Amino acid sequence: MKIWLDEWNETYNAIINPFILELNRFSGSELSEEGTQLGFYNLYLAKSKVNDIPVLEQLKLIRSYQVSLDHFLEIYQFSIEEMNRKLEIEVSQYTRNSISLVTSAVTLVLFLSLFLSYIFSRGIVKRVENTNSLVQMMTEGTLEFTSDKESTDEFDDLVQEYHYFSKGLSDRLNSLKFLLQDIGNSIGTDTDIDAFQETIVELGMDSIHADAAMLFLVDSEKNELNLVRRTGLCPPPFALDKSITMVRSNVEEYFESHPLNVETPVFGNIMNTGAALFIKDNETSKGLPYNAISDEWLFISSMIILPLIVGKQLMGMLVFYNTSRHKLFSDLDFTFIKAYSDYTAQSIDNVYKYQTLLENREIQKEIDIAAAIQKRLLPSKMPEFKIGSAMIHSRPARGISGDYFDAIRLDEDKILYTVCDVAGKGVPASMLMIMIRTILHSICHRHRKANTLLKELNYHISGRIGVDQYATMAVFVLDEKKKEISYSNAAHHPLYLFRNKERQFRSFDTEGLPIGVDKTAVFGHKLIRLHDQDYLFLFTDGLPEARSLSGKELSVEQLLRFLAENLEKAPSDLIPAVEAHIEDFAKDAKQHDDQTFLALQIS
User: Fold this and answer.
1) How far apart are CA 477 and CA 474, in angstroms?
2) d(CA 113, CA 584)
């Protein structure tokens, strides 16, 4: 290294320093600007042409210094590279030696660590086995809790704390078992809902020694939670108007008059997220700032709010309060009451489903009785007549039909036929149907024209039923002697008549409002002559609106097309064919409307 420094100093003094001085002298002369424009080589050529000896000597001197410097730098670069190569060899050798030394040291330390760990583990393995034995005994339910003993070290303290925790957890599990038994005992075939709700609140309070509690149940239609049970003072955990907080009874009754919704502070967030809320020490944490002052009667020291959820559906909410200073719910209380609330939610859901099932069974029994009565009110067979034959098919969409049909012989020559479709479904529609039948049978013998019959029937029905209850109705009176019908329609489907001579369908309709809408309504009338082999058809909406599995409707056109293809059949054979056609079209699709179909053929 010293040799290289000496060579560098010698070169600097002999070449570099004179070179720098000569360049400085050149740059300070008039040649500098000319050299900048022409370049060093072109400047030398220009001065050679004019034989400017002083300048040429100066340029040659600069050039000789440059050549000497380049030569030295090449030698110096080679020397540096050689020095770097030797340094790399020395560093590599040093690194290998260091790694060997470090590896040996680490191996020694690791061995000592393993040895010390083995020594230490032998000292605690027996206690770990003892702790594991306690866990196993607790799991099997055979753990017996003994009196306290003085600990000898931190590990004994840990075992003792675990022992206390195990005892507390065991007590809570036993308590939960008895709670669930009490709730189960309160559920029966004659469950008192109020008593059941009271049991839920009282058992929950007793299990965590709460000062107060509330139970809310959901109103799914309004998306609100209504208070169904409250025990003790339950201050709202948010700011209230002074007109409420000044009077204790107002606060006590606040939740009774204010259902919870998603806009309600504190509770609304729980309704949205479904997450429980646990305020362990409100005086310290100020989690409920409006209830954190201990000397005020709205004070809440600790609070638990638990949503009652089954699946993803919110069933209600359980709320527990401690309102005494320093009386706090523990983490174990919170964990325990969460398990209790899960069972409570399922129990509430089961009770209400069971109650609904019982109610539905009772309703179904009543529907079955009403359907049986209704069936007996309808004609079991059609009146026979000399100039032809008739048949009616009717199928309710549910147990009780809203369709009504009848065939009443008025005298020796006349028969009244009617098909009626009552708006709505179920019992209300059935009651209106029975009312129409009763009035029709009482007045029919006074009329020989269909329109006057409808007018009187409508007069007696209107005003006795609600505005949303009405019926469409088609009536015709067959005169066997004259081979004609008196026809009138109260907003029902038209009468379809297949003229055998013309081999085509004709539809007949008259003006008229549905029965029950307007007491003063009048109805149109048509007198229709009949010929041999003519076919008459009346039906309700349920036939043309029968739906397939894909949702497609049968339609009036398709129904008439099918009838036209089967007119060689008598009514007794045509009706079953229509039934089969509807079933084949609908397959297993559920039908939404009753189906009634009347077929009458003239011989």
Assistant:
1) 11
2) 85
Q: Which residues contact 244 (CB under 8 A, 6 or more apart)?
A: 250, 251, 254
The pLDDT assigned to 189 comes to: 47
Predicted local confidence at residue 139, as pLDDT: 47
Which 3 state secondary structure label does DSSP give 284? helix
- Cα distances (Å, whole numbers) of residue 98 to 87, 102, 109: 16, 6, 17
Count Cβ atoms below 10 Å from residue 591 Cβ, excluding itself.
16
Query: What is 343-392 written as a DSSP string?
Result: HHHHHHHHHHHHHHHHHHHHHHHHHHHHHHHHHHHS-SSPPPBTTEEEEE
The tally of CA atoms less than 13 A away on the side-chain side of residue 306 is 25
What is the amino acid identity at position 597?
F
Q: For the chain, give me the number of helices (H) and strands (E)?
A: 17, 15
Q: Which parts of 419-503 fold into alpha helices (H)?
A: 426-443, 450-461
Selected residue with higher pLDDT from 508 and 466? 508
Listed range (38-47, 252-261, 301-310, 574-583) with the worst mean pLDDT: 38-47
Query: Contacts for 252-256 with beta carbons within 8 Å, 24 or more apart?
Result: 255/214, 255/216, 255/227, 255/230, 256/227, 256/230
3-state secondary structure of 479: strand
Q: Tell me if 251 sits within 8 A of 284, measured CB to CB.
A: no
Please name the residue ranges forming H helices in 258-330: 267-273, 282-285
Predicted TM-score of the model (pTM) = 0.47
Strand, helix or coil for residue 75: helix
DSSP 316-353: EEEEEEE-STT----HHHHHHHHHHHHHHHHHHHHHHH
Asked if residues 392 and 596 have their Cβ atoms less than 8 Å apart, the reply is yes
d(CA 292, CA 193): 35
**What single-letter amino acid sits at 407?**
A
Q: Judging by beta carbons within 10 Å of its beta carbon (0-12, 13-18, 19+), is residue 536 exposed, middle or buried?
A: buried
Question: Cα separation of 300 and 250, whole Å?
Answer: 17
The amino acid present at 271, given as its one-letter code, is M
- Using DSSP's 3-state secondary structure scheme, residue 206 falls into helix
